[in-house]
Write a structure and sequence with these properties.
Layout (H helix, E strand, L loop, with lengths): L1 H4 L3 E2 H6 L6 H13 L3 E6 L5 E6 L1 H29 L1
Antiparallel strand pairs: 1-3, 2-3
């Protein structure tokens, strides 16, 4: 599950990992995560320009918490469905 939560690679790789996210949404989200110290942005002085994103140490510390929340949500999503069927 960690690979799903890890933001690493180029902008296009991150964008293509979730077809439901628009470019503007991704840009704004990445800016917020960078500003919060969760994601690191590395810009290389190359032509064409290249930028890579990765989790900071603080971001990596959040992975187990997010994984736990995802597991809880998956478990409890089925509880709500079962209650609706009754």
């Amino acid at each position: 599950m960690s690979s799903d939560l890890c933001i690493s690679g180029h902008w296009r790789q991150v964008e293509s990992s979730d077809p439901g996210i628009t470019g503007t949404m991704l840009t704004n989200c990445l800016k917020d995560l960078i500003h919060s110290g969760i994601v690191h942005r590395e810009q290389y002085n190359e032509v064409p320009p290249r930028v890579e994103y990765s989790l900071t140490e603080s971001g990596k510390e959040l992975v187990p918490l997010i994984e736990s929340m995802v597991m809880w949500g998956q478990k409890n999503m089925t509880v709500g469905v079962k209650e609706q069927e009754m």
